[in-house]
Amino acid sequence: MTTVKGCLITLEGGEGAGKSTVLAALRDHMVAQGVRLLVTREPGGTPLAEAIRSIVLDSTLGPVCAESELLLMFAARAQLVRELILPALDRGDWVLSDRFTDASYAYQGGGRGQPSARINDLEAWAAAGLRPELTLLLDVPVTIGMARVEGRSAPDRIENEKTDFFERVRRAYRERAAADPSRFRIIDSSLGIEAVRKSACAAVDAFIARRKGGA
Ligand SMILES: Nc1ncnc2c1ncn2[C@@H]1O[C@H](COP(=O)(O)OP(=O)(O)O)[C@@H](O)[C@H]1O
Ligand SMILES: [Mg+2]
User: Hey, whose CA ends up nearest to atom 17 of ligand 1?
Assistant: First the structure.
């Protein structure tokens, strides 16, 4: 049974990077170690935030301007943070989220050109300044990620974007990770599933060990 206090860990990366695959493995890995864990995803995680997710990803609603997209993402995030994440952390539980605010910097910032100063303000206000303690960036070349998700289901509004958009998203993610190496671990997810799972579990184990040691 672990005795470390609760904290937020996030998984980030583009389409087909393997976030859902790694999330399932990490959940099992952490629960097996006695970590009390809340698993969630963005946008979504609560009834309101999941309803906002359906709107954001709906490709039948006509054009969505970048400002609306950014605000919808933060509307969902504001609810998720207050309804689920902060109460879990207050109980001392751990939280593992499939995407969080870094995705806004990457998609609405890098992808759509929204200024990062604006996203920063929203992060401080709407996301209550909450930053993950550990973020695993699953990094894969865009063409490989896209090929993995091809035929998964009808592409949603964001999945319908062109390669250029996803190249900007990937670059923004990598720049954020490079700028904050103490929080980010970059995992080469062009490797096979087993290798990626192993690196992700090792990164979380090292983080838990460091935290237990009070470092
Ligand atoms: N490292 C990997 N190598 C090859 N295929 C992978 C790898 N990781 C995931 N996949 C496969 O790619 C597809 C997308 O993975 P998924 O975990 O859903 O990605 P994401 O949640 O990041 O979009 C799934 O079919 C999954 O089995
Ligand atoms: Mg996924």
Answer: 18
